[in-house]
Design a protein that fits this description.
- One of its GO terms (molecular function) is N-acetyltransferase activity.
- This is Alcohol acetyltransferase.
- It contains 19 helices and 15 strands.
- It is of the alpha+beta class and 544 residues long.
- The chain folds into two domains: 4-253, Chloramphenicol Acetyltransferase, CATH 3.30.559; 264-463 and 485-540, Nonribosomal peptide synthetase, condensation domain (Chloramphenicol Acetyltransferase).
- The relative contact order is 0.17.
Amino acid sequence: MSTESDTCSEPLLANANMISEDILERGHARRMGHLENYFALLQRQDLYGNFTTYCEFESYVDTETLVPILREIFFQNPILVHTIIPKNYPNHEEFYLSEQYLEKPYPEHDYIKIVPHLGLNDIIINEQEEYRDVVDSIIKRFNDDAFQITCSLTEMISNIRIPICLPNRPNWRLLILFDQKTPRRFKHIVYISNHCSSDAMSGINLFKDINKGLAVLGKEATNIIIDTIDNDYSVNNNSRSLEIYDYDKDYTKFKRLAIPITERIDYRPNWIAMGKLMVTSMIMKYLVYKFKDSETKRIKEDRRENFHYNINIGWDQVQQLKTNLQRHKSSMTGFLQACLFIVLNESGVFKDRRWNEMGVDISIPNDHRKSLPKELVEEQYKYGANVAGSHYSFLISSIKRDQIWELSQYYTEVIQSADYNVGLGALMLDFVYKNQNVDKIITDSYLGNQRGGIILSNIGLHTDKSGNNKIEDDEKKPFAGGIKDLKFIQNVGTLGFSLVVNVCSTKKSGMNVCVSGIEGTIGDREKFNATFKELENLIRSYCE
């Protein structure tokens, strides 16, 4: 137990002077909640890279039309434009990794506040000089690949890092994938986030809200906006910045920051759940399969590549698959879990397991927006880190192809009854975060271990109001395009897993299953691709 003098309740050189009393009273600054602090510490300790959501619109979008659309989105959802006020700025990166910081508890989390000024070039990564080389390479790859979202492209984008604690920029960017035919307009756009106060649904909801904004603007309004822009303006020309807002002038238009979701939903486990967590932790440590030669390191220290394999199942095939799932009382996620385990088992991944490695583990994230009233979500929690996750292990000996439906049904039942809060909730217990440094707990737990199994994240089916991926506003002025396709992709970082599988579906383009794995855990790239080609074949065999 630490004494009062051992506990740092206020940030050292916390830059509290950067947050005025007026901003606090307006609700435009507050301390992070426990879950927000968890995702921030993953960045402080260099344990996680980024996640990305990809959107393809049916029709071309003029870049400059994003300005009025984003402006309204930000006023209604200020968590999107927050930054973190760090300890020991501007030497915060070194400080957070130092013994000086890690040896003491900090029960009061860092502040977040609305970024004071934002222009389009603060959001669009194409405009930012520090990313110039990688963006040029990405755009070239996109054009060389005939404007398709290929694995080589997503691997490049997944290596981009978005730093936290920048005074004038938020924790995410938009990457516009221009093609050579339309240098000022785009169909493909990517949301890149460091996961601070954001999750995959935040990226999806941003694209949906942009799509709604395009519908509201309509062609006539869009032309008016374009006419106000200098003819020589290009998104690749830094000579001018299209202002989205200036806080000093626009602060009355912003809503208050929503309170953290951990103040709406109690993640903290009771003693029975804590006991189960301790047993589960022992099982994970000693009885589940660990991929050999896969020691976890900080992102900057790990030189291994992340291999991607992206699967698309057309909507007609998805419909047939859903019919089969209903017949066998299985969810899509339960079925995909069964397919993953079967393919890994049949590919020989587990053949070198030790005598005690009897199980394979999997984590299933859960969107906690589903636990809140719809009106509250729409008003306050469309954006933010509003997730939790289960973590269970399953006997390898039970994984058999001829029992796929029995496995799918069983996994579905586990998913539906799982405790999604206990893992992260344990960090939120008073006796934990008030007496220990949470960064150190997580760092000691995550680093220097052999990697385990899979993260399987299915963020569901997404359609627009009309059901055909097109939006019409009250005045019946449709945006001629709508959303055609959505993808969700991330690497595993240092989270202790070897694979992450992200799933997202639309009626226009079907279901995207995007796999990312650490080099060497499933052999070389050829072995990796062959393994997940088998996964693709197995899924497709049940779409007939």
